[in-house]
Amino acid sequence: MSMTIGDILALEGLGAMRPRAGEHSLHAPVRWYYVAENEGIADWVMGGELVFVTGINHPRDETNLLQLLREGRERGIAGMVVLTGPDFIRAIPPAAIALANTLNIALIEQPYQLKMVIVTELIATALVRRDQLERSRRDMLLQLLTGDYPDVEIIRQRARSQNLDLSLPLRVVAFRLTGAVALFRDLPGEAAEAHLQQARQLASQRLQVLLGQLDNPFPLLVTGQMFIMLLPEPGLSRHKQRLQQWLQEGAEDSREPLALLCGASSAVSDLSHWSNALAEARRALDVAAGLAPRQRLCDYDQLGVIKLLSAVGDRALLADFARDTLGRLIEPARRSPYLLVETLEALIQENGNALRAAERLSIHRNTLHQRLQRIEQQSGHTLDDPQFRLDAAVALLIWRMSQTNLQES
Length: 409
Hints:
This is PucR family transcriptional regulator. Residues 341-378 form a coiled coil. By secondary structure, the chain is of the alpha/beta class. It folds into three domains: 5-124, HprK N-terminal domain-like (Udp-n-acetylmuramoylalanyl-d-glutamate--2,6- Diaminopimelate Ligase, Chain: A, domain 1); 168-304, Reverse transcriptase/Diguanylate cyclase domain (Alpha-Beta Plaits); 312-408, PucR C-terminal helix-turn-helix domain (Arc Repressor Mutant, subunit A). The chain is built from 15 helices and ten strands. The protein has helices spanning 5-9, 62-75, 94-103, 116-146, 152-161, 180-186, 189-213, 235-253, 274-291, 306-311, 315-326, 339-349, 354-361, 365-379, 386-408, and strands at 18-21, 32-36, 49-53, 79-84, 106-111, 170-178, 221-223, 226-232, 259-264, 297-299. The strands form two sheets. Strands 1-5-4-3-2 form a five-stranded mixed beta sheet. It has a five-stranded mixed beta sheet with strand order 7-8-6-9-10, with helices on both faces. Strand 3 (49-53), helix 2 and strand 4 form a beta-alpha-beta unit. Helix 9 (274-291) crosses helix 15 (386-408). The chain is globular, with a radius of gyration of 26 Å.
């Protein structure tokens, strides 16, 4: 895993540094360090930095420290170190400690007697060493996930030399930011790109923190637009509710329309099957937006018939089935797009019970019956036919999957 603030505080020679706030964020990964010499830091950090505030080149009163914390939160810094002593910043103000706790930023106190040249040299050396180890681990794990490796036994030897246990079954858990299409539609190109990259940086940091909280030995992997975790079993089962809550909290904090979604593979034990597990996680991720937008997490083991649908290579065959079954219901150029589709879905979810379907949709029974008549007219089928309801359930899944792919392509 990447070096965290907690790892840095544990380095020999840095024992005098102590956390004052945001101790839950000591798992935050540190990309590099930055010594703040200007009034603000927003224009000088990119995310992931451990920011040192000395007060030597610029006076640091309570107002300025609060400003730095807010800017640090906005830019996604790993944490902040404030040097205290009789000459510049005598003590960290209580208001700064309270704000750091509110913003969940690790706030560290460093006495001036501990020389900055020693601190920065120790941190830089440790970061470079950890980065070299992480690069080697990521390279090895990505080879397994892509199936591009010379020999399994060589992989096992490399893993043992790096204290990674690959013998236990694990799940491949993939994350992706969705909503980029809407982002570039609503904002100018440069602004949308800047926002997207900042969101990816923040997502990476949050995932790194989550890995540390789960005490996971595997590093976070990135391939294309996906972030990938490897969770040893029964890790996903044990942490699924917590992961779901974490995704929901992140959605509330993030700017619309971007949202982080998650897809998990079934458990895999054989190293030669890791690439299959990645494909499963990708399939679960692809249907998460359309089929479980409120849950944000899609488990491949719970996809049911979608496993079969996602494995069909001929996408045109699926599209034809959905179109033949649903008819004009899924035509995009409608006065009320997808209103009848949602009504049909509600009826199927309630096993054909019209009263409960009306309650689910929060509409009057008469309104529901009017819509059901239109569904029968436009689909060419009767809702009393159980075969049609079965076909419609499958066709709606196919349509939702195709809509997800269309929106994110």
